[in-house]
Design goal:
Elements: E1 3-6, H1 20-28, H2 34-42, H3 57-63, H4 67-75, H5 91-109, H6 112-116, H7 130-141, H8 183-188, E2 192-198, E3 201-204, H9 219-224
Antiparallel strand pairs: 1-2, 2-3
Helix pairs in contact: 1-2, 1-3, 3-4, 3-5, 4-7, 5-7
Length: about 220
Amino acid sequence: MPLIAPKEAAPVKMSAKMSPELELFVVCGWGKCPKRLERAMKRKPNVNYKNEDGLTPLFNATMCGSADFVEKLIKAGAEPNVVATEYLLTPLEWVTAKVNYDEERDRRLNDFDQVNRLDDTCLAIRPDIEPFRKVKQVLEKNGGVEAKAFSNNPKIKPDGSIDGGKPAELRSYKLSADGSYTASHYLRSGKFDLLKYEDGRLVECEYDPKTGHWEGYDAAAAATA
């Protein structure tokens, strides 16, 4: 499959003045600077700003384990059930997977017997799971759900409705081989180039900017890439 590459450099330049939305997005990825968050919020940003992967400031705060930031964003109007990334996950879905993975890894590698069998030169490292447990609690308390987009009965439908409720464009997604956050999705945005290896070099490929399809496009292959 060809490669997708952004046409322009990364939007975050520390020497440049960021938009209110981008500043909030970046600050929420730090998670430990409440005063900077307050300053960013005073610029009246759209708290539901999405980047190219569908990630919002709330997603960033979730991924860095900042329950305080998550709570403040939700109080400011952030939607807790935005579906993002090629895996079509909500913040609760992501943090649940994170907690489950770290708990299982901790049980497997850091039980009493395993630690006491270690050589004296080895060090057992336990993951810090508690911040993510707190984030999970905050999301659940504020109506966070798991999308289960790829299941036979998704909790959040493609139109953004939850359990048969009202549709919501902010939560909506397209579930298909060329749907949300797939290679075709990025190419349709006009912000990415399509590249391929030819004679050991990366060269640009032609593609249809309306569909995001390229010569030899295979929906089945694209869905599993």
